[in-house]
Amino acid sequence: MVEGVMEAQDDGTVSLKLQEMGLLPVRIDSTARQTLLNREIEWPWKRKKIKHKDLLVFTHELHTLVRSGFPLDRSLAVLGQLAESPAMAAVIQDVLKEVKGGKSFSEALGKYPAVFPKVYVNMVKAGEAGGALEEILARLASYLETSDDLRSYILGAMIYPVLLSVVGIVSVTILTLFVVPRFASIFQDMGVPLPLPMAILKGLSSFLSGYWWLVLVALVLAGYYFKRFRESEQGRLKLDRWLLRIPLVGAVLRKVEVARFSRSLGTLLHGGVPLLQAMTIVREIIGNQSIAMAVEPIRNGIKKGEGIAQPMKQSAVFPPLAMHLIEVGEESGKLDSMLIQVGEVYDVEVRNSIKNLIAFFEPALILLMGIIIGTIVVSMLMAIFSINDIPL
Question: Which of 3, 26, 50, 130 has the largest count of CB atoms under 10 Å?
Answer without folding.
Answer: 50
